[in-house]
């Protein structure tokens, strides 16, 4: 019996796969443990990161592709089941029930280049304050203007006047821009 292949895909050699999980930072050690204990000799687990600078100037490393990690291994159904058993919220990406793998190292280089080109981002929350006048840039409320009432970790709550009523709606920081003070009279 010859070596099993699917097209030019050699199932007996390691390839890069994409694994989706709720929390890549918690899942990565478990995935490494599964691969190490399954006697995989040539495995890698890679999570590309981007740098974000907080208001205080502290640099944090956050996943470039939240929820995704890249794994180089020899895929088997047993490996997939063990990773699922170790971390229940982890799944290999599939297309039409077939495992999705990265075709070549050139494809992986594109992802690594994206990681290397990431500049230090500023925390978007830092550029806004409570009471700031803002314009919504995209979504159904595009071009509406309002005032920031409060913040959460992911959202600014903006007070808008719509159809004669004042309402407060959460918006992600990316869809807001500061504007000059508005006259509400």
The gist of it:
Helix content is 20%, strand content 38%. The chain is of the alpha+beta class and 185 residues long. The strands form 5 sheets. Strands 3, 4, 7, 8 and 11 form a 5-stranded antiparallel β-sheet that branches.
Per DSSP E runs of 2 or more residues, the count of β-strands stands at 17
The CATH H-level homologous superfamily of the largest domain = NusG, N-terminal domain
- State the name of the first-level CATH class of the largest domain: Alpha Beta
Determine the N-to-C terminus distance.
83 Å
Description:
The chain has 3 helices and 17 strands. By secondary structure, the protein is an alpha+beta fold. Strands 3, 4, 7, 8 and 11 form a 5-stranded antiparallel sheet that branches. The chain has a 5-stranded antiparallel sheet with strand order 16-15-14-13-17, with no helix packed on it. Helix 1 packs across helix 2. The N terminus is likely disordered.
Would you spell out the secondary-structure blueprint of this structure?
Blueprint: E1 5-6, E2 9-10, E3 15-21, H1 24-37, E4 44-46, E5 49-53, E6 59-63, E7 68-73, H2 77-86, E8 90-92, E9 94-95, E10 98-99, E11 101-102, H3 105-117, E12 121-122, E13 133-136, E14 145-151, E15 155-162, E16 165-172, E17 176-178
Parallel strand pairs: 5-12
Antiparallel strand pairs: 1-2, 3-7, 3-8, 3-11, 4-7, 5-6, 9-10, 13-14, 13-17, 14-15, 15-16
Label this structure with key terms.
185 residues; alpha+beta; SH3 type barrels; 2 domains; five-stranded antiparallel sheet; disordered N terminus
